[in-house]
Amino acid sequence: MKVLLICISLILLSALLFADTMPDFRLPDATGKNVSLESLLNKGPILIDFWADYCNPCKIAMPYLNDLANKYDSLTVVLISIDSPKNQMKAKNYLKGKNYKFVTLFDSEKTLAKKLNVVNPPHSFILDRNGEISYTHVGFEPGTEATYEQHIRSLMGLETEAE
């Protein structure tokens, strides 16, 4: 019985440890070029935000996320659209002309979204430069970006209070 409890405990512990790492991915950008997680790592923190064209909180979040991307050069902001293939063009058209400083990717089959249990956008993940998930949040309202900034600054080794 003790052996069984120890085995179950080890399995649960290992699941928790592995749950904190962003799964590797290769997703197409707006031009169809595949971008991998590996190509985004090592520069600094990464903020990944899953969004959809039909999601108003997603669209409200974008200018705030862009402000963070502009404020911190070593921060990479990645928007991943989970719009269906037939709605992908609407998502691309929405972003066209916005001049956001984002890496924009498309997960129309929701392969990565399913691995991360992303059901309702916006769903954000903040990663360190090694791909470890340090923070996750579902939803967005103005003010949420301050919490994101605290986590980003912490990963950068800066004061936790925003300037």
Layout: helices, strands, pairs:
Blueprint: H1 2-19, E1 26-28, E2 34-36, H2 37-40, E3 46-51, H3 56-71, E4 76-81, H4 88-95, E5 103-106, H5 111-115, E6 123-127, E7 133-138, H6 144-155
Parallel strand pairs: 3-4, 4-5
Antiparallel strand pairs: 1-2, 3-6, 6-7
Structural class: alpha/beta
Count all strands and give the number.
7
Task: Write the H/E string, N to C.
Answer: HEEHEHEHEHEEH
Strand content: 15-25%
Q: Radius of gyration, rounded? A: 17 Å
Question: How is the main sheet built?
Answer: 5 strands, mixed
Rounded mean pLDDT score: 87
Q: Report how far apart the termini are.
A: 55 Å
Which stretches are poorly predicted, pLDDT < 50 over at least 5 residues? 4-19
Tell me the number of structural domains.
1
Summarize the entry for a quick read.
This protein is an alpha/beta fold. The chain contains six helices and seven strands; from the N terminus they run H-E-E-H-E-H-E-H-E-H-E-E-H.
Write up what this structure looks like:
Helices cover about 40% and strands about 20% of the residues. It has one domain (about 25-155): Glutaredoxin (3-Layer(aba) Sandwich). The strands form 2 sheets. Strands 5-4-3-6-7 form a 5-stranded mixed β-sheet, with helices on one face. Strands 1-2 form a two-stranded antiparallel sheet. It is an alpha/beta fold and about 160 residues long. Helix 3 links the parallel strand 3 and strand 4 (about 75-80). It has helices spanning about 1-20, 35-40, 55-70, 90-95, 110-115, 145-155; strands at about 25-30, 35, 45-50, 75-80, 105, 125, 135-140.
